[in-house]
Amino acid sequence: MSDQAPTITPPLDRFPWINPLLEGVFAVDDLTLGAEPSAALRLRGRLLIDSEKAFARLAPPAKARGYLLVLRRREGGDELTLVRAPSTPARPRIWLHALLALATLVSVLFAYALFWSGVELTADGLWPVMREGMGFAASVLAILLGHELGHYLVSRRLGVHTSLPYLIPLPLSPMGTMGAVINMADVPPNRRAMLLIGLAGPLAGLLFAVPILLYGLSLSTVGPVPAEGGYRAEGNSLLYLALKALVYGRILPSGGLDVDLHPLAFAGWAGLLMTGVNLIPVGQLDGGHIITAWLGSRARALVTPIIGVLLLLGIWWQGWFLWAALLWLVSRRQVEPLDNVSPLSRAEVAMAIGGLVLLALLFSPIPLRFV
Fold first, then answer.
1. Which of 51, 53, 68, 170 could form a disulfide with 342 if both were Cys (CB 3.0 to 4.6 A apart)?
2. Distance (Å, whole) CA 327 – CA 368
């Protein structure tokens, strides 16, 4: 087999520009036109230079001609695929983001009045109570927006088009919201970009959640656990236990005592909880992006064991059954970076492992109990 790309003749009349680019970069064994509905050309063979350098050389000319370059390593060798680039993303609908943000603000304020005010709500008294809940609402929204803006800013920095956050109201819940989502219109170019985008959200969210939790704990009180029940008990992750010990100088709950959470403390605790859930290494969750960036396609092998663990935990907290079902659905299609061959550096592998350590610190096996 020659170390030079062979001269490619028809039926590649549509791609006359590709042959000069492949010289000294990729040795072609076979090619397929229209390999899939979205794939215009697939080349099988082997890389002649470092995969990262090869992708950096081939991807920009392909993108300039309206194609995305996808690099994969198969059993039989390396594979280059030209995929038709998606159409230019539509202009952001600022009005929709603003409307959802306003609806979520009202929803969180209503949730405060319903679950946290401790007063009987009347038509006349609802608005004053909601005004009192502005600190709670600001805390919840700061954590949500901090998380999503972490993804957004790093994505834009790396040239990956991402929408602004969409906030989701849910008034009949203690938080008043289902969270927020962003729409990633582009596929990350490589594993490094996928790793950094995946880590940015949890880290940015924690920058808000931890100070809010510490301040909320300073406003909370410690007292005896009610003997007759009728209360809500939040789950204890390792980080949450450590922060309570930092504030109160002891591990709680213990000795029949526990913290009666101030609403701001509950907002911070919920921020830790949702960050931990997002770091589960499956599917489209942040943890799924982190583990795919580290292990590549091998990350798929973890899906079944992780869902099995969640089903087992469902014996103690039934909410995990729902999460297991949702994660099974979203894991059926795992997004991989365009260049899924070039590995992470040692420092980047350490960052990926750090993401898993953070999961261990934030995960709560029984998030919430009603006693």
1. 51
2. 20
- DSSP β-ladder status, 232-234 and 177-181: unpaired
In this predicted structure, the answer to whether residue 322 has a pLDDT above a threshold of 60 is yes
Nearest alpha-carbon partner for 175 in 203, 215, 133: 133
Q: 261 near 340, Cβ under 8 Å?
A: no
Q: Does one domain contain both 108 and 221?
A: yes
Residue 198's nearest CA partner among 275, 106, 141, 268 is: 275
Tell me the two tokens of residue 63: 């993108």
Region 162-186: what's the mean pLDDT? 85
Query: DSSP state, 124?
Result: T
| pLDDT(1) > 70 | no
- pLDDT computed for residue 151 by the predictor: 94
- The pTM of this model reads 0.88
Lowest mean pLDDT among 31-45, 52-66, 285-299, 310-324: 31-45
**Residue at 41: amino acid letter:** L
239 neighbors 272 (Cβ within 8 angstroms): yes
Note whether 322 and 196 are same-domain residues. yes
- Domain span holding position 313: 94-370
Name the one residue in this structure whose structure tokens are 């405060």.
112
Look up residue 339 and give its DSSP letter: B
